[in-house]
UniProtKB/TrEMBL annotation:
Subcellular location: Cell envelope
Domain of life, per lineage: Bacteria
Keywords of this entry: Signal
Family of the protein in this entry: Belongs to the bacterial solute-binding protein 2 family.
Name of the molecule in the record: Substrate-binding domain-containing protein
Span of domain Periplasmic binding protein: 49-313
Lineage: Bacteria, Pseudomonadati, Pseudomonadota, Alphaproteobacteria, Acetobacterales
Length: 370
């Protein structure tokens, strides 16, 4: 379990380093006059490729950007040609960094982005499209925002259908609890699509387990240290009534495990989400009961590929069917029964992907509640 302690310490030490990384390629930029609306350009010869995301110290986002690096290298470019825009969980910084990038390179940008929260997606997309650049997004957008409403420049949006897999993890947890007792849930940022859906999955599972009591729900913002504090608070408030923990991400589960260790609590059933390498290892060891693998390495590479190949004119987004503009990514439940085999196949080394096979691992169009 030493990696969790090291991980907590590394988050503090590396945060300043990666804040500097977030400015790579953007240093000394002067924000120019307000962007003028431009028409979409059919093909960009050599676009700048950028990824805008939350936090490189987070294993999930590290895998996302590793996939982006792999795609960039597949083009014969060095990894450091990928521009990293790290928003540190701030939607304001996300938008400001993207506008700075656009002020320098204009329409010569192929951007992959998680806008950090749902409301921020629209201003991000509008800024990119006004510059005549290209963007593909993941995870967070509002239901009324669609790529096909922006011609070719808003290339695609990928999210993951989290309700079902989260319900599966909850059922694994409840069964391990013997179908009774109190459970707590640590969630992500309240306005994030995945946080909302993963909590809903837990609530769906509760309907089939009348003797399971949901003691508390609290956001820990996808953060290990905050999750540690939240779990410590749960233990102080509920004590022995807590019999299981449902985490909306692996990184929060690490904080939970450390909080339990500090109280000398062993064997508490815990489930999480994201399928980070460390988490899959913990599942294999029985320290976690389950996680859900969303293949962030592929997701990071293919999101960058979609923006790049649209920018360079390899395909025309507006000519594609809607299921190629908005779609679900893959999700796989990993439990103690199959974690070791899964780890050897997907974690110990990354599979080779054909980055031109743009929709090969998607799992259907996004479905909205009526």
């Amino acid at each position: 379990m030493s990696f969790i302690k090291n991980y907590l310490e590394r988050q503090i030490c590396e945060r300043r380093q990666f804040l500097l990384l977030s400015a790579y390629g953007l240093g000394g930029m002067a924000v120019s006059s307000a962007l003028k609306t431009k028409t979409a350009r059919a093909a960009v010869q050599n676009p700048k490729i950028a990824w805008s995301y939350r936090d490189r110290t987070n294993p999930y986002w590290n895998s996302i950007v590793a996939g982006g690096d792999a795609f960039v290298r597949s083009l014969g470019r060095p990894s450091d040609s990928l521009i990293n825009l790290i928003n540190e969980g701030s939607s304001e910084k996300s938008l400001a960094d993207i506008k700075s990038l656009l002020s320098r390179y204009g329409s010569q940008v192929a951007l992959a982005a998680d806008p950090n929260d749902m409301p921020n997606c629209r201003p991000v997309v509008e800024a990119v499209c006004s510059a005549g650049a290209y963007i593909s997004t993941i995870w967070n957008k509002t239901d009324d925002l669609h790529p096909w409403d922006f011609g070719d420049n808003y290339v695609s949006h990928m999210t993951w259908s989290d309700v079902g897999p989260s319900e599966q993890t909850a059922r694994v947890l409840f069964d391990a609890m013997g179908g009774k007792g109190g459970v707590v849930h640590l969630g992500g940022i309240a306005s994030n699509n995945p946080a909302i859906e993963r909590l809903q999955g837990l609530k769906n599972a509760l309907k089939s387990y009348p003797n399971i009591e949901l003691l508390a729900v609290q956001a820990a913002d996808w953060d290990t240290q905050k999750a540690n504090q939240v779990m410590s608070g749960f233990l102080t408030r509920y004590g022995d009534a807590v019999k299981g923990v449902h985490c909306a991400s692996d990184t929060m589960a690490y904080g939970v495990i450390e909080a339990l260790r500090a109280e000398a609590i062993e064997g508490m059933p815990i489930v999480s989400y994201d399928g980070n390498p460390q988490a899959v290892g913990l599942v294999a060891q029985g320290k976690l009961l389950a996680t859900v693998f969303t293949n962030p390495y592929w997701g990071g590479g293919i999101t960058a590929a979609l923006a790049y190949y649209a920018a360079t004119g390899v395909f025309k987004p507006s000519s594609e069917p809607k299921e190629h503009r908005e779609f679900y990514g893959p999700a796989t439940l990993v439990t103690t029964k199959d974690a070791s085999e899964f780890k050897s196949k997907y974690i110990d080394s990354n599979p080779e992907y054909d980055w031109k096979s743009l929709w090969s691992f998607t799992s259907g169009p996004i479905k909205y509640k009526s």
